[in-house]
Amino acid sequence: MEIMILAGGLSHERDVSLRSGRRVADALRDRGDNVTLHDVDSDLIPSLRNNHIDVVWPIVHGASGEDGSLQGLLEMLGVPFVGTQAKEARVAWVKPVAKAVLDRVGITTPEFVTLPQSLFREVGAEQILDAIVSRFGLPVVVKPARGGSALGVTLVNEPQELAHALVHCFAYGDIALIERAVHGAEVAVSVIGEGDSARVLPGVEIVCEGPYDYDARYNPGRVEYFAPARLDASVADAVAGTALATHRELGLRDLSRIDVIVSDNDTVNVLDINVAPGLTEVSLFPQAVAAAGLELGDLYREILEGAAARGAA
Amino acid sequence: MNESTPDVPRSAEGTRLDPWYDAYAARAHQMRASEIRALFAVASRPEVVSLAGGMPYIAGLPLEDIGAMMQRIVTERGQVALQYGSGQGDEQLREQITTVMALEGIAAHPDDVVITTGSQQALDLVTNIFIDPGDVIVAEAPSYVGALGVFRAREAEVVHVPMDADGLIPAALEETLTKLRAAGRRVKFLYTVPNFHNPAGVTLSLERRPQIVEICARHGVLILEDNPYGLLGFDRDPLPALRSLSPEGVIYLGSFSKTFAPGYRVGWALAPHAVREKLVLASEAAILSPSNIAQMAISSYLDHFDWQGQIKAFREQYRERRDAMISALQEHIPTATWNVPDGGFYVWVKLPEGLDSKSMLPRAVTARVAYVAGTAFFTDGQGADHMRLSYCYPTPERIREGVRRLAGVVDQELETVRIFGAAASANPSTVEFPSPDLA
User: Fold this and answer.
1) Which residue, among A182, A312, A195, A212, has the nearest Cα to A253 in the 3D structure?
2) Helical segments of chain A, H only
3) Alpha-carbon span B233 to A35, nearest angstrom
4) Considering only CA atoms, which of B64, B82, B62 is closest in space to residue B73?
5) β-bridge partners, B369
6) Which residue of A has its CA nearest to B29?
7) Cα–Cα dist B312/B232, whole Å
8) Do A166 and B11 touch (CB under 8 A)?
9) Are B5 and A200 within 8 A, CB to CB?
């Protein structure tokens, strides 16, 4: 099987994507697979046309990699690929839209509002900032409505921090999502497969000294991971069920990572949905695979074989 | 597996993904992975106009001839080129380096030259032998980010002294040294880039040079003179190095990275005899010896190529690029202010009121243009209102396009500041560890 892994791209998460792509390629090559690693650039289409490629795995984080664009291109080119299809990726990528979909089927996400920068100009920033604090209280989480790797994300504890958090957020995108902060056990649940055959891997619990920010994610040390998560069996089942329901409801395919927080009353809140989860040496998905007692290379091969057998959309 | 939790053993043991987490030195725990550094991964793509890195215009070199030179070194002298060498560096190259330094008025003996892996290693060696944790280093405001990274790694406290268009201000240096002495602080050295400063672009005037040397001598403060750009002036001959005014009071750092090619990683330190001895011992402890093949390449280049003619060609290329950047700034971002450097690689731009260059960087990367935020060049939180633009690497056309994109970013950021106020734009500052993009 000839495999092409797409990594890089031009998003703010290029670095993480390149690291993910190299890790997956290494895991596959270790078991003898033929893998080409390719950037998302002007050589991509000629490479796909001029070489026999059985399946493509787009591991491009951030815009174009997760917003359905790249998937749409691969569908248009008739190339079998790993991961969620364009239409579903578009929904999952826009956090407020995904939250609305989940809300309709009773999956809990933190209370939120989305506000474009233009609205602050039109209505007046000070009044909106006051309204945010009175509606949600503090702390709140400010994040770009589209994006990942904690880029542009701030936990706001004091009213005077809110404006700066929004400015930081708007540097990454024009729309901010402001969420009521939820406290509790933070668990990342990786899901593989699709539809009725989808299955969860053991949840990975994240215990972080300070905010779970870019440094915490990619500079090992400040975060302690527990896999499987230290949850009572009934809660663990609820977490797994919520992640699986999220994956199915959003029509995700092959692999995803659903980040949740279990609040004090054992409510499972879905925080984030990743259609192209990080696959670096410090990422959560590989930890879940290891906790399940699976070999990364074998699982990646299984995912690729499934995508190749499925064929082009 | 199904909707219920997978049936795997439950463990109370967590992992930090780093079994040595508790073994690190305390200073290692202060190191942070920066999302700003991650953004620079995009800058390597051709779609992005990078005005960030201080990368010389290597395409301007006679690469085929250099290739033939490298082949000769390996085929004719490979047994030496690929072997360990002297800890202090090759004697012939040290001799040649004295002739390079003579162009800036330095009379030096080859015995006092220590060849290093780029002048960055020389910076580290000097800091290693002089600095205990908490010692004070006085440095210009702003100062080269790569030096600040070394100083922080050695746990020095950096005190900045302001500059103006003529470089370091003698009265401000006097005042700072006096205050520090009164506070009982021992200043170990003054770190200065006197020519075509990185990032400020300014040059220490001829009149001020003896004043700076005198002030430091009176306060018993060594000078660390870092001079990678001295031969890259556009309009005049090089000024005399501080080292030429005080052989015993100055450690001079030189480099072939900007005048020839950084890929060889060859620089040097010229130090008073006793200091030189310790630098050699420290360098041997760190790297045993600098690369023989790289030293032989530099030596051969100095012997067989018109290296001064090449520097002249570089100067003309960089002048054209400087002009392109300045005219583009005038056209596209007239609300900013900047210096007009007469040499070197950098323009130091002061942004319109209220803008924060670090906050603005993700927006710039989205617009496919990169720069270095001013905060990288300070240890005390200053610099948010500045950014460093490099004109050395992109073509004039790319420079104009990059500045045009930057203008759009500035406009967007001004809109954000109008909405939220300047205070909201301010960003906590951190010192970035150096990377090639920041050199």
Assistant:
1) A195
2) 14-30, 44-50, 69-77, 86-93, 95-104, 117-123, 125-136, 162-170, 214-218, 233-249, 284-291, 296-310
3) 50
4) B82
5) B49
6) A221
7) 8
8) no
9) yes
| Interface check B17 vs A, CB under 8 A | yes
Interfacial B residues in 352-381 facing A (CB < 8 Å): 359-363, 365-366, 368
- Between chains, do B4 and A226 touch, taking CB under 8 Å as contact? no
C-beta atoms of B48 and A224 within 8 A: no
Element (H, E) at B80: helix B63-81
Cα–Cα distance measured from residue B296 to residue B90, given in angstroms and rounded to the nearest whole number: 8
pLDDT above 70 coverage of chain A, percent: 99
The mean per-residue pLDDT over the stretch B375-382 comes to 90
Of A66, A42, A59, which Cα lies nearest the Cα of A4?
A59
Tell me how long chain B is.
Answer: 439
Q: How far apart are the first and last CA of chain A?
A: 19
Span A164-200, pLDDT tens digits: 999 989 999 999 999 999 999 999 999 999 999 999 9
Tokens 């020389």 found at? B122
Q: What is the pTM of this model?
A: 0.90
- Bridge partners of A255, per DSSP, are A192
Pick the residue of B11, B13, B17, B429 with the most A CBs within 10 A to test the interface with A by mutation. Answer: B17
Per-residue model confidence (pLDDT) at position A264: 82
How far apart are alpha carbons A81 and A48 in whole angstroms?
12
Q: What is the pLDDT of residue A149?
A: 67
To probe the interface with B, which of A167, A219, A234, A281 has the most B CB atoms within 10 Å? Answer: A167
The answer to whether B26 contacts chain A (CB < 8 Å) is: no
| Average pLDDT, rounded, for chain B | 92
Per-residue pLDDT, B53? 87
Question: What's the pLDDT tens digit per position in B90-103?
Answer: 999 999 999 999 99
Which three-class secondary structure state does DSSP give residue A246? Answer: helix
Instruction: Tell me the per-residue pLDDT of A52-90, one tens digit each, with 9 for 90 and over.
Output: 999 999 999 988 889 999 999 999 999 999 999 999 999
Calpha distance B227→B196 (Å, rounded): 9
